[in-house]
Amino acid sequence: MSAEVIEERSPADAPPPVRPRRTRVRELPEVRWAALATAAFLPALALDLTGAPAWLWAPLYAICYAAGGWEPGLAGLRALRERTLDVDLLMVVAALGAAAIGQFLDGALLIVIFAVSGALEAFATRRTADSVRGLLDLAPDTATRLTPGGAEERVDVSALRVGDTVFVRPGERLPADGTVREGTSDVQQAGITGEPLPVDKGPGDEVFAGTLNGTGALRVTVDRDASETVIARIVSMVEEASEHKAPGQLFIERIEQRYAIGMVAATLALFAIPLALGAELTETLLRAMTFMIVASPCAVVLATMPPLLSAIATCGRNGVLVKSAAAMERLGGITRVALDKTGTLTEASARVRGIRVLPGSGLTEHEALALAAAAERPSEHPLARAVVAAAEERGLRLEPAADFGSAPGRGVRAVVAGRTVQVGSPLALLDGAMPPPERPGDPAPPTGGGDPVRTDVANESSRTATADSPIRPATTDDLIRTATADGPARKAVDQDDPVRAAVAEVEDGGATAVAVLVDRRPAAVLAIAAPLRAGAAEAVAALGQLTGTPPVLLTGDNKRAAARLGEEVGITDIRAGLLPQDKVATVRGWEDAGERVLMVGDGVNDAPALAASHTGVAMGRAGSALTLETADAVVVRDELAAVPSLVALSRRARRLVAQNLVIACVCIGALVVWDLFGHLPLPLGVAGHEGSTVLVGLNGLRLLRTSAWPGAARTGRRAAGSETMSGGSSHP
């Protein structure tokens, strides 16, 4: 497409912040038809009640019937053609039946109330969609793209491609997701991540489309197409969620048809039997039509989806994507929470804290790190990113990697500069490794099948795991543990095996040990650690209070590092050294025992457990693509405190569903009893039926209020405070 060169503008000329557009009432056709029906009904009512001739009010009633009844009537006929009985058609038939026996006023009143109720429902549904679709309005329509020669050109956002560089002036909104190439600024991204304060951005930082640039100018490299931005993904996921109905809604829809057929049969019986016994035609027909109206399950059908969809929309506005109404409903029913360690309880941006080059490897620290980073570069695991980042910070040149292979929970393997490099778990890699080359004075390695101490301890650990916990494999801690009291045997083993000595030293320091093998020989041990996420301890306490069960830590990391983290966040049940299949077995064990498990993770190795759990939540900013696809919900802003807020909001939505069902059933039951055993006027029956439907719909939309998410967050904080107080009181 053509592009036009633009002129420089000052910050004062920058476009103002975009406000999400909301649907106006008069834009909806349902509202316009309901307004026309009401406008015709009101003068007709006045003329009819004052005794005016029929030729004055009859045309107005006809307009009212046509304006308010043609659309639901047509929809009902189409449904009937597909052998589905639509409640809307029954309402229109009841109105026409009233007109047929001369009750024009009652029929018109039914049409007007029904049309107004439908208009309110359509308006509420559109506002729910607006609250999410409005995010798209945050992104600008055009962007300033920089040409290879440095010139500026104004192009549509849809014309941007991955790798393009865009220039963002102060006060402008970012046109695409990308990485800052040049410049520093503060960016307000509350609409995407929910962070209330602007975030400082500089070279290398990630930015999102639709966020508002502050006082600095930025050059940003586009990382995603317009259809793949965070905003577009939020909208897409919420729209998909609207199409996936909750189990309660599916159950209601399954019985709705049978109920509707039974209701029609009861209506015919209520009309035919008294008429056969000599009852008066008009009174019998009015009673039967009133019964058909008040017994219609409109309010019951509307009871479930509005609260769940409102909760999904509120979550989307606050940086949490829930993929379906079924997932939102399941979140409120969890009884146990399992959390991953790296990237979930800790920041995803782990850092290499130290490099232990092993004797006899012939490598320097920089050489060992360069080989490890070259092998890890194709991986998306948080620890792999830490290794690559450490090499880049040191300015090391990374050779291309060939024959890359990855085994979740174990590590990676690649050929770098003609050498086979393996990087990963010491437990997984060191057992099959060749010993380091001998140095003068080193004792000869044991023969006859490897290290007898390692073998004996590993076998003992395996037997212990089999007896006590069939899903827990031996950890590196088990492999190097030979004494528990004073540890002399362990020290002796460490002296004989520098590899395990290095691993033990790293893990004793609370870091994660990563082994580096070159041509199957141990070359180095990397110490990697990540800072604890802000609010992790409070989130853990809140989740424990909400579920009534202490959260569990499931990690593939070593036992000592996991235990140290558990102490910091308040988790006592720690399952360390787990491979992906072990996490799955743990989760399935709980599920088989009747627990409903919420799994929270971020890496590829968490994806199987997320799929096996009752509900899975992924940390979205640094989560792997597979994990984001597998999870039922995604925390875009990577704030762990959002998880208890999400659970609390889901439970509130479930309570609203229960309230709606009670309101609907009580109203329907009361009106049906009144009609059967008393005399319920048709207008009053219509008002009661439609009033209950509107009440249920509006009650379900309460979670769209801006106070809904802060309220859920306060519930989580109160739960955390209660958990802390109860935990503190249990210790003298």
From TrEMBL:
<dbReference type="Pfam" id="PF00702">
    <property type="entry name" value="Hydrolase"/>
</dbReference>
<feature type="region of interest" description="Disordered">
    <location>
        <begin position="427"/>
        <end position="478"/>
    </location>
</feature>
<feature type="transmembrane region" description="Helical">
    <location>
        <begin position="107"/>
        <end position="124"/>
    </location>
</feature>
<dbReference type="InterPro" id="IPR044492">
    <property type="entry name" value="P_typ_ATPase_HD_dom"/>
</dbReference>
<dbReference type="GO" id="GO:0005524">
    <property type="term" value="F:ATP binding"/>
</dbReference>
<keyword id="KW-0479">Metal-binding</keyword>
<feature type="region of interest" description="Disordered">
    <location>
        <begin position="1"/>
        <end position="21"/>
    </location>
</feature>
<dbReference type="GO" id="GO:0019829">
    <property type="term" value="F:ATPase-coupled monoatomic cation transmembrane transporter activity"/>
</dbReference>
<feature type="transmembrane region" description="Helical">
    <location>
        <begin position="285"/>
        <end position="303"/>
    </location>
</feature>
<dbReference type="Pfam" id="PF00122">
    <property type="entry name" value="E1-E2_ATPase"/>
</dbReference>
<dbReference type="InterPro" id="IPR059000">
    <property type="entry name" value="ATPase_P-type_domA"/>
</dbReference>
<keyword id="KW-0547">Nucleotide-binding</keyword>
<comment type="similarity">
    <text>Belongs to the cation transport ATPase (P-type) (TC 3.A.3) family. Type IB subfamily.</text>
</comment>
<feature type="transmembrane region" description="Helical">
    <location>
        <begin position="656"/>
        <end position="674"/>
    </location>
</feature>
<dbReference type="InterPro" id="IPR023298">
    <property type="entry name" value="ATPase_P-typ_TM_dom_sf"/>
</dbReference>
<keyword id="KW-1133">Transmembrane helix</keyword>
<feature type="domain" description="P-type ATPase A">
    <location>
        <begin position="138"/>
        <end position="239"/>
    </location>
</feature>
<feature type="compositionally biased region" description="Polar residues">
    <location>
        <begin position="458"/>
        <end position="467"/>
    </location>
</feature>
<dbReference type="InterPro" id="IPR023299">
    <property type="entry name" value="ATPase_P-typ_cyto_dom_N"/>
</dbReference>
<keyword id="KW-0472">Membrane</keyword>
<dbReference type="InterPro" id="IPR027256">
    <property type="entry name" value="P-typ_ATPase_IB"/>
</dbReference>
<dbReference type="GO" id="GO:0005886">
    <property type="term" value="C:plasma membrane"/>
</dbReference>
<keyword id="KW-1003">Cell membrane</keyword>
<keyword id="KW-0812">Transmembrane</keyword>
<keyword id="KW-0067">ATP-binding</keyword>
<dbReference type="GO" id="GO:0046872">
    <property type="term" value="F:metal ion binding"/>
</dbReference>
<dbReference type="InterPro" id="IPR018303">
    <property type="entry name" value="ATPase_P-typ_P_site"/>
</dbReference>
<dbReference type="InterPro" id="IPR051949">
    <property type="entry name" value="Cation_Transport_ATPase"/>
</dbReference>
<feature type="transmembrane region" description="Helical">
    <location>
        <begin position="31"/>
        <end position="49"/>
    </location>
</feature>
<keyword id="KW-1278">Translocase</keyword>
<keyword id="KW-0460">Magnesium</keyword>
<feature type="compositionally biased region" description="Basic and acidic residues">
    <location>
        <begin position="1"/>
        <end position="11"/>
    </location>
</feature>
<dbReference type="InterPro" id="IPR036412">
    <property type="entry name" value="HAD-like_sf"/>
</dbReference>
<dbReference type="InterPro" id="IPR008250">
    <property type="entry name" value="ATPase_P-typ_transduc_dom_A_sf"/>
</dbReference>
<feature type="transmembrane region" description="Helical">
    <location>
        <begin position="259"/>
        <end position="279"/>
    </location>
</feature>
<feature type="compositionally biased region" description="Pro residues">
    <location>
        <begin position="434"/>
        <end position="446"/>
    </location>
</feature>
<protein>
    <submittedName>
        <fullName>Cobalt/nickel-exporting P-type ATPase</fullName>
    </submittedName>
</protein>
<dbReference type="InterPro" id="IPR023214">
    <property type="entry name" value="HAD_sf"/>
</dbReference>
<dbReference type="InterPro" id="IPR001757">
    <property type="entry name" value="P_typ_ATPase"/>
</dbReference>
<dbReference type="GO" id="GO:0016887">
    <property type="term" value="F:ATP hydrolysis activity"/>
</dbReference>
